[in-house]
Amino acid sequence: MFIPASCAQVNLIFGGNGAPKGAQMTFGVGATEVDDPVEIAEHVRDALEASNFLANSTSELYIQTILVKRGPNETGPSAELGVQIFGETSGNAVPPQVSVLVRKSTVQGGRKGQGRYFMPGIPESAVSAAGILSQQYVSDIQVTQDAFKQELADSLMPMLLLHSVEGSSDLPLAITKLTVQSKVATQRRRLR
Question: Is the pTM of this model over 0.85?
Answer without folding.
Answer: yes
